[in-house]
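The following block was generated as part of the benchmark described in Methods. Ligand: fe (iii) ion.
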Amino acid sequence: MELTALPAFEDNYLWLLCDSTQALVVDPGSAPPVTEALHRLGLRLAAILVTHHHGDHTGGVAALRDATGAQVFGPAGESIPKPFTPVHGGDRVQALGIGWRVIGVPGHTAGHVAYFADDINGSPLLFCGDALFSGGCGRIFEGTPAQMLASLDALAALPADTLVCCAHEYTLNNLRFARAVEPDNTALANYQQQCQALRDQGKPTLPTHIGLERSVNPFLRSRQAAVSRSVKAHTGCTNDDVAVFAALRQWKDEFK
Ligand code: ZN
Ligand code: FE
């Protein structure tokens, strides 16, 4: 299996996973980069996995489905270009001959889902849309902080070697904020240097993996003493886990 990040718009990645003849694509906000890659690689599009309804994740769905007959999977209850196969957290679906576990990760949108496979080339693989980013997480547009925290807890509990395919190249910005939250985290400082070097060479910082995110991503670390202390010092918030997480998310929203 081969995994490729197709860049689109300013900073989106459309993830393409393929065997020697067929491919699936995740969140095709735009059709042309996908059509071009299929043509270049001589692949048939078998399936489209959609994580949530935002236009930068769904804009190319109808054109790709109409051109290829690919089966579209998307979260039940969100407005995805019809017809599509609705999925819910806890479902198992087959696409490209692979069994995918659907994980409900509401918060960024109300019905946001992620797709997880246990073994692609020997490692687990996660497509998480705008729920989790490297060093950050999605903005809370439709859900509550409690939902977002529970969603990120579910993703953080996946195996450490899970490859994480996020939908945006937001890593450097996220890490600048993460360093403000945890100035003494050396794993974070080292990771920031590695990511800067990748971006200087024009390369993606993704995929990341869950074990690394647990050590650098403040949104997976909001219960760690260093993070909650920093949130409390910055915002005055001294409440429970959800309040600390909500204050951390709001701090990031306002961070320049
Ligand atoms: Zn989104
Ligand atoms: Fe997005």
